[in-house]
Design a protein that fits this description.
- This protein is mainly α and 81 residues long.
- It has one domain.
- It contains four helices and no strands.
- Helix 1 packs antiparallel against helix 2, helix 1 packs across helix 4 and helix 3 packs antiparallel against helix 4.
- It is globular and about 30 Å long.
- It starts with 5 loop residues before the first helix and ends in a 14-residue tail after the last helix.
C-alpha cells in the first residue's frame, strides 16, 4: 500500500485534515501550508500522479490515490477529457 511510504504517510495526514469537514479553518490552513512546504522541498520525491492532484488542489483524489481505496473520478480536474 502506498501509504506505507513515510513521505506519502505525512502527505496523507495533512490531506486528512484538509478533507475533514470538522477541521477548523486554522487547521486546514496549517495543513495546506505544510503540504506546500513538503511539495517545495521534495517535489521530485512526490509521484507524478500525486503531484498532479496536489497542483490542482484535488485533495480528495489525492487521498484516494494514496489509499488506493477506489477509482479516481476522471475529468473533474480537466485530465481525461
Amino acid at each position: 500500500m502506498k501509504k506505507e511510504n513515510p513521505l506519502l504517510a505525512t502527505i496523507l495526514a495533512h490531506l486528512k485534515v484538509i478533507t475533514n469537514e470538522q477541521s477548523t479553518p486554522a487547521q486546514t490552513k496549517a495543513a495546506i501550508e505544510a503540504l506546500d512546504e513538503i511539495y517545495a522541498k521534495q517535489n521530485e520525491a512526490v509521484p507524478s500522479d500525486l503531484r498532479h492532484f496536489l497542483n490542482r488542489h484535488s485533495y480528495q483524489k489525492a487521498v484516494l490515490w494514496i489509499e488506493e481505496s477506489g477509482p479516481i473520478p476522471r475529468g473533474i480536474c480537466g485530465r481525461g477529457q
